[in-house]
Amino acid sequence: MPTVHAPTREAGADHRPATPPVIRAGGRRISRAWPYLLIAPAVAGGVFLLLYPLLRAALISFQHFRMGELIRGGAAFIGLDNYRELLAAGEFWAVVLRTFVWTAINVVLIVGISTGIALMLVRLGRRMRTALMSVLALVWATPIIAATTVFQWLFQSRLGIVNWLLVRVGFDSFEGYSWFANGTTMFGVLVVLVVWQSVPFAALTLYAGLTTIPVELYESARLDGAGGWQVFRQITFPILRPMFALITSLEVIWVFKCFPQIWVLSQGGPDGATTTLPVYAFKIARALHRYDLGSAVAILTVVILTVALVGNLRRMLKQEGADT
Amino acid sequence: MRPRRIALNTAALAVLAVMIFPVYWMVVTSFKSATDIQSETPTLWPAHPTIEHFATAVGADGFWTFWRNSLIVTGGAVLIALVVSLLAAFAVARMRWKGRGPFIVAVFAAQMAPWEALLVPMFIIARDSDLLDSLAMLTGVYFTITMPFTIVTLRGFLAAIPVEIEEAALVDGCTRSAAFRRVIFPLLAPGLMATSLFGFITAWNEFAFVNVLIIKDQDRRTLPVWLSSFRDVFGADWGATMAAATLFALPVLIVFLFLQRRVGTGMVAGAVKG
């Protein structure tokens, strides 16, 4: 068992000032133990608060674990029964489908809008660019719950500014319209909220990528008579393909597992119209005390996300190989 | 070329206005008088500016308790994550050892871990170990959530510092820890700032786990939970709610805008690296 007091050990090595900064395996005994002492606290944290909960969820998903077991303990092993129950329920599949639709709509909008803003940033003058970038940073930094609360206010039925604007523009049917009472409009408001919150990161990252493309490439393409769209397709996109892939997969993961916005605005309602997988897992655990079923949903969420994650991980490892 | 420039700038202004509007509306509403908020035609600017809503928000039951809880949990998580990650990042960036590859893979995987899927097991673990309603458990969870990103980013910054600088310091008679303190640490400052800001935002924002782990002892709640239940606190008083939201967002906005340039690139570098 590695000790968690790595820092003190590290300090103990100070008496040997001649130690080279790069410590290779095969050095003195103490230097071989060093890296493991240094990572010990990180490993301990990851094992106790990430790996263990994950394994625990897996275990519970194979048990009969409800209110009674939570209080008394002694949950019985019931094999795949929870998964069978889950997969047999029409509701589960509706939730899975809804989660995919939710993820697809959001990610397409986020990546599309961010690309537009990033391309715009490159072309803007210095002052305008700084202004827009500051605003993006401001939105990026706005805490999720603060933003969620603001959106409740923006879309209020009676005094909300959105309805007022729509009526002013001529859509009289929005007079006192209740956005949160209808499943589709609730879904729409959540999409607007999540897209608004996610665009800044994606746009600023893509912009940073765009600035690395040499200007000469564009110039020669222009000389060859390429139009704006052609330049994007032939030069910009191929060069930034890895970055687009990274951003898309990050956004897929973030949107897929998005929880607080949905929970605060709608609690998955009305009528389950905004219940995605994480909300579903939480709902059946918390409201129905079906911890076993909730854990099974959690495990399936992890499995689905892992598929999205594998490509990402592979790319990182490749980068890793190029680095070292 | 002229009309294109104008069109571009107009489009940029439109984007800017749409993006900033929710934040702007939050701040403006919090300064409006109750009658202005209730008026049928909203004004873009508070006609009768007032700070009464801020007084209501600050005077609300438990505001300072939740503020303190948030600060303790966030500060604790960020500090622990920085120390622990710095040690691990140093091992990864500067040493060769068996298992280094798998460790890096594990860190990358952890960075993308679906934390929201772990709400149920985390609740049961906390309950079994008598850690429900405990700020320590919350701090631990936030520390673990921010750690992978912190390790990856700090490692990137460490790797960018040439070993020769450190060697030169050692040759000049520095001890190893003095070399770290005087040479590496200052060069690492932007990285430390970027990662602690990221950790700060994550922990300050966190809502799902505090919602699950703090059940009975309402005095242990943090600001996000308090704010999300504003209906219980303020009813339909939107002025006070927006004032509370503004107060909640303020620390992050200030720090972020203050460090924006440096941190922006740091965050992007971290994100691009993984």
What does this structure look like?
The complex is a heterodimer of chains A (about 325) and B (about 270). Chain A has about 325 residues and is mainly alpha-helical. Chain A folds into two domains: about 1-35, no CATH class; about 80-324, MetI-like fold, CATH 1.10.3720. Chain A has 14 helices and two strands. Chain A has helices spanning about 5-10, 30-60, 65-70, 80-90, 90-125, 125-140, 145-155, 160-170, 185-210, 215-225, 230-255, 260-265, 275-285, 290-324, and strands at about 65, 75. Chain A has a two-stranded antiparallel ribbon. The model of chain A is unreliable at about 1-20 and about 25-30 (pLDDT under 50). Chain B has two domains: about 1-50, no CATH class; about 65-275, MetI-like fold (Orthogonal Bundle). Chain B has 13 helices and no strands. Chain B starts with a helix and ends with a helix. Classes of the chains: A mainly alpha (about 325), B mainly alpha (about 270). At the A-B interface, helix 1, helix 2, helix 5, helix 6 and helix 7 of A face helix 1, helix 4, helix 5, helix 6 and helix 7 of B.
Largest sheet of chain A at a glance? 2 strands, antiparallel
CATH H-level homologous superfamily name of the largest domain in chain A = MetI-like
> From the 3D coordinates, which CATH architecture of the largest domain in chain B would you assign?
Orthogonal Bundle
> Beta fraction of the residues of chain B?
under 5%
**What is the first-to-last residue Cα distance of chain B?**
40 Å
Write the CATH fold name of the largest domain in chain A.
MetI-like fold
CATH topology category name of the largest domain in chain B: MetI-like fold
Structural class of chain A: mainly alpha
| Secondary-structure content class of chain B | mainly alpha
Radius of gyration of chain A, rounded? 26 Å
SSE pattern of chain A, N- to C-terminal? HHEHEHHHHHHHHHHH
Write down the Rg of chain B: 23 Å
Could you list the spans of chain B in which at least 5 consecutive residues all have pLDDT below 50? 263-274
CATH class of the largest domain in chain A: Mainly Alpha
Envelope shape of chain B: globular
Number of domains of chain B: 2
Q: Spatial order of the strands in the main sheet of chain A?
A: 1-2
- Strand element count of chain B: 0
Shape of chain A: globular
Mean pLDDT of chain B: 83
Low confidence ranges of chain A: 1-21, 23-28
